[in-house]
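Troubleshooting: if your tokenizer reports a length mismatch, compare your output against this known-good record of 85 residues.
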Amino acid sequence: MNEGMTIVDMLGQSGLLTLLGMGVVFGFLIIMIIFVTISTKIIKALGLDKDKEQAKGAAAKPVAKAQNNNAVVAAIAAAAREKKL
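Known-good structure output:
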């Protein structure tokens, strides 16, 4: 009456398979971290992490000055108050 694997055998095999799967995923994550780190160092060494304008030392474009938009603010406030009701 040999029925095959017992519950203990199946649990042992499933535990081994679980650890093996976790090991594969963990190993892949380590490889991916190493690859990203090396890629980052290469990109920084070649200067490819900067925009063309920044590499030339060009100043950033000036931001437009804030305008007095009291009418727009009032319209937004009125719409928000109306929405609450």
